Records
---
Amino acid sequence: MGTQPLTLRGGTGDPLLLVHGLMGRGSTWSRQLPWLSELGTVFTYDAPWHRGRGDSAPGPVSTERFVEELADAAESLGSPVVLIGHSMGGLHSWCLAAERPDLVRGLVVEDMAPDFVGRTTGPWEPWLHALPVEFASEAEVLAEFGPIAGRYFLEAFDRTPTGWRLHGEPQKWIDIAAEWGARDFWRQWQAVRAPVLLIEAGNSVAPPGQMARMQEMAGDRATYLRVPGAGHLVHDAAPQAYRDAVEAFLGNLPA
């Protein structure tokens, strides 16, 4: 059985909802929780197809499905939220802000862009299908993914009596990414009216120039930061730069 999608992590004040990326999970925000809990009431969210190996969501994959479930989670908190999204979570956060502006008072979008059209999951699929369903040791996870992503996946995977098990189905994760290669999300981005902080990794997965263009299109509503040398997990790879930017952004949000 999988986890509940929404988890209270602590703090007081306005709600902050942390939305993970592809192959992530709400539990991967552990290193950010102490300081974020000083800035609001923090909740983490597990997206469909990321809630545990035994909790595969029925039905087809679509961004609309993700946004609908994220909207339900945000609405349940009772007041407009700040969505802090990494990668896939950033995309779903801005799509929700476009569709339901009443639910969103601010957005952090970390290392995600609107247009991956034409890019395929082909080079990635053999590696993902070759992953073992379960890793027997922490050392195996770190050897497969490296020290930063490895620590992240140790927190994301299902913990079992014998190791660390993938917390979703690789084919579903491939299907999620494949949709991004077939459609863009510029229209949704243009509809966002909430204040936004855009954080791009120096070694980004986003196509070059797109996140800067997002800032240009949003004008004064958006702040853009590129973090040289950081990989896709900016919040773990460059934690102080990430923290400084998010704290400043949250401190300047209208009440």
Note: The chain has a mean pLDDT of 95.
---
Amino acid sequence: MTSSEAGDRRRVRQAALSVGMWVAASSAIVVALGVTVMVAVILLRARVESDEHGTDFPGHHGGGDDLVVDVDRLLPWVIGLGILGVIVLSAIAWFAARRAVRPLGEALRLQRNFVADASHELRTPLTTLTSRIQIAQHRFARGGDVAGALEQLRSDADAMNDTLTDLLMAAEGTADTTSLTRVGDAVNAAVARLQPLADDSGVTLEVVSTDRAVRMPLPTLTRVLIAVIDNAIQHSPGGPP
């Protein structure tokens, strides 16, 4: 079991325990209030009758006042309190169900966001990979050397793997936020991956060296720069060379 799976199970257990305790406490309060109201109604509706004849029966000691409750007057209160209790407990169950499925809804939202981000982030590397494959095919058809193209394809595959790993780490909240990355290294990596797309669009990419560094993993910074440069290529005037 991975750490992320263990964390998910722990969160689900905590959510279930929280919902169970909340339902138990709420139900206990509702039942206690119902009993209190019922006792108050009985005391208010009851009347005292004197036992003049001293009638003796099991549980009765005779010679005193008796507390008499008319069932026909008490029954509407019993029915009304029962209906009200069902309504309140139904509302509690509905609210508890919403709280119980909240972690599932959050997990589905994160999953949708990850799929959307992965689709967006991998589209450009896949397009670049397709362009390099076409270049390698043309060279091979003409009897040219494809060793360099194959090396570039291997580099692009490694870059896609780094991008996917970076996306997974960001989704799990385990991304590295302490390491320093030279901006120039990320720029060079982004330009190298987008060069085939720039060539197809007739756009020239020029790199200006810089010694600045940022506190961000190299794959993450490269992904950000690829998104910016790719957008610039798509909206730059030019045409096929």
Note: DSSP finds five helices and four strands in the chain.
